[in-house]
Specification:
Layout: E1 5-9, H1 17-31, E2 35-40, H2 46-52, E3 56-58, H3 66-83, E4 87-90, H4 93-106, E5 110-114, E6 133-136, H5 139-149, E7 156-158, H6 175-181, E8 188-193, H7 198-217, E9 221-226, H8 232-242, E10 249-253, H9 258-264, E11 267-270, H10 272-280, E12 285-288, E13 293-296, H11 302-307, H12 321-333, H13 337-354, H14 357-374
Parallel strand pairs: 1-2, 1-4, 2-3, 4-5, 5-6, 6-7, 8-9, 8-11, 9-10, 11-12
Antiparallel strand pairs: 12-13
Length: 382
Amino acid sequence: MKELKILLPTTRLDIGGAETHVLGLAKQLKRMGHYPIIISSGGVYVEELKREGIPHHYAPLDDKRCTDLLESFKIFGGIIKEEKIDIIHTHGRIASLISKTASIVYKVPFMTTAHALFSHGGGLKYLTFWGDEVIAISEDVKQHLMDKFGVGEEKITIIENGIDTYAFNTYSNNMNLIEELGLDRDSIKILYISRLSGTLADLAVRIIKSFPELSRKLDKVELLIVGDGDDYEQVRGVHRQIDPMKKSIKLLGKRTDIPEIMNSADVVVAVGRTALEAMAVKKPVILAGGEGYLGLLCPQNYDLAKSTNFTGRNIGHLYTEERFINEVVRLFSVLSEEERETLGEFGRKKVEEQFSIKRMTEKTVKIYEKLLRNWGHFNEDN
């Protein structure tokens, strides 16, 4: 088919599952011969977009004040007219509001991807727009859209997160990184990656508070925490209390060298897309997040983990310090190195089979074709 010009609005381009998803989708669309353009309020991944030759435009999509909404709409309109956009594919609530309006005014097909369980109280249900086609990243997100927002099942397609298995692999050189961070080459390195806001920041605090007990039960343990957010200072305050000399706990803030950092770790604590990225670099993964706790990912709980988009939500288990400490101790005191490697190989295989970025993008382009056809903008010569 012909080159499609796809506008990809998202709230921001900082560390986070939806943000990484948009970045990976744009890169793969370009590899397939399409022309993606991203609009966001900026972030650490803007420089990577520039290196990839993917246009990025700033708009205040992280602010719902009327003046900012109007400014964003003007920016959308200018890009749609200048670039002759074929499809708006939106990721984020405020961006969807602007996209819906732009779709009506400029007669451009509009669709969305739902990356999580969106809040729906206080009238938010009626201020959230999902477009003519909707991608849900998991079965439980699809059910949430139907139950809480009244989205018709016929409009929803499940397309799981896509992981760039070229970027996330075991060949990343991490020797310089280990030196840069002042890590002990022989230590057990526990890595937690998340946006540090709300319940996810609370979890980072609880993991930090568990560190003294982990240090008593295991030799040479180091904890790395990657991410930024509204509650970063709260996390940093607890970090100072537990490890004032910053010898064993490293709070790294925003980073874009995630594959290298993951390759430096011995176990990754994460949920959602980040858990899949860790699986791709063959790391054991402990599924722990703000919505649930599933523990060490293994063949026995894989199907359950997948059904919750690797979050552990709605299964009745929540994080406790005791559960987490026992899991880490079992991983490094009971399981052998060979068993840990087997878990890593299992994770990589599942990502390659079910979650590659190429597979995800090809499915997404099929939705683009369907949407254009429904709008009468597609024919067999495209």
